[in-house]
Design brief:
504 residues; 14 helices; 28% helix; single chain; Rossmann fold; GMP Synthetase, Chain A, domain 3; alpha/beta
Length: 504
């Protein structure tokens, strides 16, 4: 194994005149042009502070320049830190203070406020807007290309991705060149990618799914990206005849099913529809097959591991399961004490393989807690493995909410709610939602005489949390249900409010 960009570059030489990226506006970059632009980006990073081991944080909108920045970081041996554009200044201040980036790339409108953050004090800040314009790229054509690819070890960091924790403190998952390369090469093989493929890319680029699963896999296959700035069901439907693969979260498929024009004829050129980042409902699977003739391929992964399982490209794709372990990936189900359970038994899923991350950034104790002595990572997801090896995810041991494909940990939101005047305590739960899969919702206990209302509570937390974490509903109760040990019984709350978003 070597620098991930070196692997991409090696495969791209054979496809130098093929289109690597095409935008909705018709702009195109061949693989040769992509490499040239990346070499100039690398030269720019050399001047701004993106050298080997340096963290480069990016809170920017999706653009081709965004991908080039990521690739240039790989080329330089820097550590790429993508951040959701919805994160608030409070959240960013923590990430910057913890990761200590040498360079922060942000939207021009946020530059002044980001520069004022204490966590950003030691970093240089450069601007890049949604159109791919800004200080980061100004005059880039005059930069002398830096064609050298930094030598790195397999275990050197390629990316740092923050994932919320049950304690409310976000953890930085350290992903190495080996982690990303091994996973992408495996996916390109098991999903049958070739240079003839075109992936319709509508996913965000701050997430494992859109950046690593989609982009890395395509580029290592010498295939093409048909690049949309965001998911829009009508645009995706119109572009499907030009694509061979679509990757999406379950929300994408429910919204496509709501389009009258979705048909087998419109999907005739697509060979593969992939779903992940959240559970795909079985009725969505069956309805999509009935409308298009395609059986969606569901897979399972997480920030810390990339992809772990996949339903087969050729073979039985079982609805309600996330398929079989990927080649080179070992899975087992265990109880809380680590005792391995048998076929069909439900327990916590554990995983070991070259895809599993190096650990949590500057959290050695937390890292040690999450790994078994034999190297298996404890995912926290409840699962069962059947006699044929198919894995079913049946729950989440840590109350994780997945809303629209994004991970939301209740404790992080509860801490914000509990600080509001008049709030005694709160419980945040995921409630079934026809579009998002799960809707973030909260049950709040108010102090005697406190004048609390739903709209005011939602407005108060919106200033402190990214939009996808803000509760869509808030209910008030005199107390929270608890068991004999005093633990809040969130299952009772979920049952009480399970029909809140059911269509009437």
């Amino acid at each position: 194994m070597t620098n991930l960009y070196g692997l991409i570059d090696h495969r791209a030489h054979a496809a130098s005149e093929r289109i690597a990226i095409e935008t909705l506006d018709g702009d195109r970059l061949t693989y040769a042009e992509l490499d040239e632009r990346c070499a100039r980006f690398a030269a720019r990073l050399a001047r701004l502070g993106g050298g080997r081991g340096d963290r480069v944080a990016a809170q920017i909108e999706k653009s081709v320049a965004n991908i080039l920045l990521y690739l240039a970081c790989l080329r330089r041996g820097a550590v790429y830190l993508p951040l959701n554009a919805a994160y608030t200044l409070d959240e960013l201040d923590y990430f910057f203070g913890d990761a200590e980036p040498a360079l922060i790339v942000c939207d021009p409108a946020k530059r002044t406020t980001i520069e004022a953050l204490s966590g950003a004090a030691a970093a240089r800040v450069a601007a890049l807007d949604a159109a791919g314009r800004g200080e980061l790229v100004d005059g880039l054509d005059h930069e002398a290309p830096q064609r050298a690819i930094a030598p790195v070890d397999d275990d050197d960091l390629a990316a740092l991705l923050y994932t919320s924790g049950t304690t409310g403190r976000a953890k930085g998952a350290m992903l190495t060149h080996r982690n990303l390369a091994s996973n992408a090469l495996t996916l390109a093989d098991v999903w049958g990618f070739s240079a003839d493929d075109v992936l319709l890319h509508a996913l965000p680029l701050y997430h494992v799914h859109g950046l690593f699963v989609a982009c890395n896999t395509v580029l290592l296959a010498g295939a093409g990206l048909l690049f949309l700035p965001r998911f829009d069901a009508a645009h995706v439907l119109a572009m499907l005849p030009r694509a061979t693969v679509l990757m999406g979260v379950p929300t994408y498929y429910t919204r496509l099913l709501a389009q009258d024009g979705l048909s087998a004829a419109g999907c005739a050129g697509v060979r593969l529809f992939v779903s992940g980042s959240a559970p795909l409902l079985e009725n969505t699977f069956h309805e999509f097959e009935a409308r298009t003739g395609h059986r969606i391929l569901e897979r399972y992964g997480m920030t810390e591991t990339g992809m772990n399982t996949s339903n087969p490209l050729r073979g039985e794709r079982r609805p309600g399961t996330v398929g079989l372990p990927l080649p080179g990936v070992e899975l087992r189900v265990a109880d809380e004490a680590g005792r391995v359970l048998g076929t069909g038994e439900v327990g916590v899923l554990e995983v070991r393989g070259p895809n599993v991350f190096k650990g949590y950034w500057r959290m050695s104790e937390r890292t040690a807690e999450e790994f078994r002595a034999d190297g298996f990572f404890i995912t926290g997801d409840l699962a069962r493995i059947d006699a044929d090896g198919y894995v079913s995810i049946v729950g989440r041991a840590k109350d994780l909410i997945i809303s629209g494909g994004l991970n939301v940990y209740p404790k992080e939101i509860e801490r914000v709610l509990d600080e509001l005047p008049g709030v005694v305590e709160s419980a945040v739960i995921g409630v079934p939602h026809p579009d998002f899969g799960e809707a973030v919702s909260a049950v709040v206990v108010g102090a005697p005489g406190a004048a609390l209302d739903e709209a005011a509570v939602i407005a108060a937390v919106r200033d402190r949390l990214a939009g996808f974490k803000v509760p869509k509903r808030v209910w008030f109760a005199p107390s929270l249900p608890r068991n004999a040990m005093g633990k809040v019984q969130k299952n009772a709350l979920r049952e009480q409010h399970r029909d809140a978003f059911r269509p009437r």
